[in-house]
Amino acid sequence: MEAQETDTIEPERVPPSSRRIWGRTLAALLVTLIPFLILGTAFEEQIAEFVKTERSPWTMAGIITAVLAGDMALPIPSSAVITYAGAQLGVLGGTICS
Length: 98
Hints:
Helices cover 72% and strands 0% of the residues. By secondary structure, the protein is mostly helical. α2 (57-70) packs across α3. The radius of gyration is 25 Å and the shape is elongated.
């Protein structure tokens, strides 16, 4: 008896590397968005109060530098922080801090 050939079509499978990429992309999005969703308006009010408070340029330079250093591990919008640094410390001071 001869073996019969079957013409079965296997469903397309997504390669594991694609699944891994999508999983990491989703994780990165969640890590970035969840703190903002949890903290919400209370966090925005604290930031607004911080911005209104007058501080010395040296104190602001230290705070801005620390916030930008934290940007490596936390979801901090560094472009907004750098823009704020320029507004508070001037172009040269903001550039030096960033």
